[in-house]
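Usage

Read records sequentially. Each one opens with the input sequence:
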Amino acid sequence: MRREHISELVCAGGQHRLNLQEGAFEEQGDIKEGALTCVATCPTVPIRGSVPRFVPDSGYSQNFGEQWNHFRRTQIDKFNGTDLSKERFYSGTGWSPAELKGAKILEAGCGAGRFTQIMVDAGAQVYSVDLSSAVDACFANNGPRENLCVVQADLCRIPFRHHSFDKVFCYGVLQHTPDPHASFMSLIPFLKPGGDLAVDVYLKGWALEPYKSKYLYRPLTTRVPRHLLFRFLQWYIPKWLPVDTFIKRLPLVGRVLGMLIPCWNYHYLPLSRQQKTEWGILDTFDALAPAYDYPQTPESVTEWFTSAGLMDIRVRLGGNGVLGNGRTRPLPV
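and closes with the structure output:
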C-alpha cells in the first residue's frame, strides 16, 4: 500500500483515523511491512506483503485463499490471453471504460484480482477488499500500482470511510457469506450520493442445470478437510474432464446426464487444454468447498435494492445467475 491510501482507511470498529507506525519498510513508494494504529483504542493493524490485515485469518473463506493462491493467474486476462473477465465485467455492470477513468471504486471481494485488473487498467482508483488470503494473489497479479490499494478485511466491517466511493462492485461474493442480504446492505453506506452499485449472485431455482448437482454433494464435501478435497479434485478433474465433455455434448440427454457428477467444464471457451483443466479444478472446488452457498431469486435481489432505497434498479438473469445494478439518490439541487 502507499502512504496516500492511509488517509482513506479507518479502523474496522468505527470511522476512526489510522496512522502509520514508525519503522515501516517502504520500497519505491510501496509500504511492504509495518503497522497502522488507531487514534482510539482499536487493535493495531499489521501490514504484511503490502496489504493491511484487519482480520487475523480467513475464517469461513479459507478455501478461497487456497484456490486463488494456487491458481493465481488462471482467470486473469493478461495471463490467459483472453478478454473473458473484461467482457463479463463490462456486460454485467453496464459501465464503460470512460466512466471508470478517475472513478473511485470499492471492490468488495477481489479474489485473485480478475476484475481488479480491468478497473485498474481503465484508470480507476481501486480499493479492493477480501476476507481471505486471496488478497496476496490479487496484489501479486496487479500491484504495486499507484491506483490500487488491497486490504484484507471482513465484508461487513470494511475499513473505509462512508460515502466516499463513486462505485461499489461485488461479484462472486454475496452468496458465500453467512447472510447475503446483510452483506449487501453493508455495501450501501460506502457509496456517494448518485453512486453506482453492481452485484451478482447465484440463481435459485429448480431448472435443470449441469451445475446444480453440487447441492447433492455439498453436505459431504463441506465436511471434508479442504486440502484433501483440493488434492482429490487435482487428481480427478484432469481424468474426468474428457468424459464429461463427451457427455455434455450429447444431444437431448447430455444436459441431464451432465448433472450427475460435478465437474465445471469450459470446453466451449477459447482456452487451452491446460487452462480448461485449471478452470475446472478451480471452479469445482469453488462449488464444493465453501461453507456457505445461498443462491437467490431475481425477486429477492430486487427487494434488496428496493429496501436499500436505491434508484435506477436493474435486476436480470445473466453472468453467474442474477445480475443487479442500482444507484443511490443524488443530493437535492
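Summary fields computed downstream for this record:
- The first strand starts at residue 18 and ends at 20.
- The chain has 13 helices and twelve strands.
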